[in-house]
Automatic annotation (TrEMBL):
The name this protein goes by in its record: Phage head-tail adapter protein
InterPro entries, per the entry: Phage_tail_attach_FII
Domain of life: Bacteria
One Pfam family it belongs to: Phage_attach
GO terms for biological process, alphabetical: virion assembly
Amino acid sequence: MNVIVSAVDRIYANPSMAVAALWISATTSEETPIRVIRRAPDRITEFGAGRFVSDTMMVDVRVADLPDPHPGDLIVVGADSFTIQGEPTRDRERLIWSLDLQPT
């Protein structure tokens, strides 16, 4: 195991950084408990001469916990449910998925 994998494992095990969640497949209804790091960056969208700021909800998930997420899958964090929208993307080391979520 290399140092980066070990560091990612420690970050996701830390309750101050990551929270428990549940992934539910849209196609097979399979459920898997996962840990996620929640992010909520503002997104700026330009339309003509106007610029609009909108809230977003994103989570980062270890590839080891969730090997194959797809758009339409459900992520449940506490009492909140979200649908994965758009294609999931991985980091350079291929250890972490970034998922763009939409409230359901």
